[in-house]
Write a structure and sequence with these properties.
- There is one protein chain.
- The chain is of the alpha/beta class and 251 residues long.
- The protein is globular.
- Helix content is 44%, strand content 15%.
- It has a seven-stranded parallel beta sheet with strand order 3-2-1-4-5-6-7, with helices on both faces.
- Belongs to the short-chain dehydrogenases/reductases (SDR) family.
Length: 251
């Protein structure tokens, strides 16, 4: 009997690093659930690309700020694929460049709710499905952090950096918690990457403008980050858990 293809859920999978992860995962044989929050056309483009290449994927809407959305998303994955083998917690936000003394409570709460609590909720639901303790067959989780977690992003996004530092700590703690239950939990820390996220923070030219600060003197590409995530998901990384991999051009 042929083994069913592994299934992967990618949050924030409709663009940037998330879309690159979806496409590479499909090439590697995963069936992919492509999560998006507000742009169904972008998500459907990723799904169509995967299907045209012979893969299987579907788009699923959910806002990482809403637990009810996350639960409904997992129900959709259960109905469509009947199993879950891997999760990439990629969805995240930045905000406008600002000093901490210029930020309001709403910004802090939104940043932490999406980048930290959303990641935790998605991981919780994945563990419920993958852990041998719950009758699952094991699996892998990769959280997308940021090199900002160790650099601090002074004068730009200290709140974002703090949220990603929380993701790092969550990764290490969860990895140890579920290591005996067949689940590996790792993180990728991208450096400055040439994606649309900078425009969402009001700095569309940021990746090129700051390339001089990077030892490699260039921003990364979404595909370079995606390849690191795919390696951590794969059996090639079978003895890696609680690891945080810098993919940052030397920063």
């Amino acid at each position: 009997m042929m083994q069913a293809a592994k299934t992967l859920l990618v949050t924030g999978g409709s663009r940037g690093i998330g879309a690159a992860i979806c496409r590479l995962a499909a090439d590697a044989g995963y069936r992919v659930a492509v999560n998006y929050v507000a742009n169904p056309d972008a998500a459907e483009t990723v799904v169509r690309d995967i299907e045209q290449a012979g893969g299987e994927a579907f788009a699923v809407q959910a806002d990482m700020a809403e637990e009810s959305d996350i639960l409904a998303m997992y129900e959709m994955v259960d109905q469509r694929f009947g199993r879950l083998d891997a999760l990439v917690n990629n969805a995240g936000i930045v905000d406008r460049k600002a000093r901490v003394d210029e930020m309001d409570l709403a910004r802090f709460e939104r940043m932490m709710r999406i980048n930290v609590i959303g990641t935790m909720l998605c991981a919780r639901e994945a563990v419920k499905r993958m852990s041998t303790r719950h009758g699952g067959k094991g699996g892998a989780i990769v959280n997308i952090s940021s090199i900002a977690a160790v650099l601090g992003s002074a004068g730009e996004y200290v709140d974002y950096a703090a949220s990603k530092a929380a993701v790092d700590t969550f990764t290490m703690g969860l990895a140890r918690e579920v290591a005996e239950e067949g689940i590996r939990v790792n993180a990728v820390r991208p450096g400055i990457t040439d994606t649309e996220i900078h425009a969402s923070g009001g700095q569309p030219d940021r990746a090129q403008r700051l390339s001089g600060l990077i030892p490699m003197k260039r921003p990364g590409t979404a595909e370079e980050i995606a390849r690191a995530a795919l390696w951590l998901l794969s059996d090639e990384a079978s003895y890696s858990t609680g690891a945080i991999l810098n993919v940052s051009g030397g920063r």
